Amino acid sequence: MADPVIVHARGMKCPWPALRAARAMRDTHAIMIEADDPIAGRELEALARQHGWSFAILGTHRYALAHIAPD
To answer: Which tens digit of pLDDT belongs to each residue from 9-22?
Structure first.
């Protein structure tokens, strides 16, 4: 498996971090996104859930989204 795609969205107001993540999701299996908008975490979690991906908080303003392979 390749390394996750890094998405830089610091300084962007929502919905831009989620839109950038959604675009990256088209071409990869995993994303690490940096976003400092206060509601970015909730929006990224909802995006991941909507697409059947996992969501994790990596630290302050850092999140991971990954495709969940079917069983």
So the answer is: 999 999 999 999 99
